[in-house]
Amino acid sequence: MKFIRPILLFIVIMHVSGCTTTRMSKYSIHKNKFICNEVTTDLGNIIVLPEAAWRSDQKEPIKREEMAIGEIKSVFKNFPCGKISLPGAIRHFSNWSDVPESEMLNKFSNEGIDTVIIIRMEELTPRLEITFSIPFLWSGSSEVDFRIRVISIKTGHTLNDMRIKRITGGPFNVRPAEWSRAEFNAALHSIIKKE
Asked: Do 52 and 96 form a contact (C-beta atoms < 8 A)?
């Protein structure tokens, strides 16, 4: 009898903590759901420009930027519809949107770049929500929220403009900040090319 209560408690905890789900939202200005599609089969020489739009109370923004750069380099290493081979093809975080677009396109055109990809990070973080009630509950998640724009230097046209949000978590989850890297990696893979 004294073993039944701990066993039941263990079963309930395992059952509830196994309720991890992933939700992903993708908003696109264009009908293209992927960067590499029928229209953009070859983007030529590409440069990737990450920028941050963190909220004012963002914790450890430098750590978040380092995590994001690591995943950008990992995902874009084998980019299927263009070349990311020129030196400095993946830049450091900066305020790229502050530069007039025509000036930016002209600058990169002179460097032999055909396509600019701007990745604007808004969230790369764990979340923890606590309900002070009976029973005491909490829910944790890993979250990434970013906007990606693909611009042709030759024409000046925006080939793609998407906002992506991906969240994984659930009741009784506690997820460290490092797990947000996997969310960003999976979200990037999901928009590059249809599998």
From this structure: no
Q: What is the pLDDT of residue 89?
A: 92
Q: Render pLDDT for 133-149 as a digit per residue (tens, 0 to 9).
A: 666 566 777 889 999 99
27-63 exposure pattern, b = at least 16 Cβ within 10 A, e = fewer: eeeeebebbbbeebeebebbbbbbbbebeeeeeeeee
Query: Which contacts (CB < 8 Å, 24+ apart) does range 18-23 have?
Result: 19/170, 19/171, 19/172, 20/168, 20/169, 20/170, 20/173, 21/168, 21/169, 21/170, 22/166, 22/167, 22/168, 23/166, 23/167, 23/168
| Residue 184's pLDDT band (cuts 50, 70, 90) | very high
Residue 72: pLDDT over 80: yes
Map out the domains of the chain with their CATH numbers: 20-192 (3.30.160)
Return the residue matching tokens 């993708």.
26
Q: Which of 2-11, 24-33, 87-96 has the lowest mean pLDDT?
A: 2-11
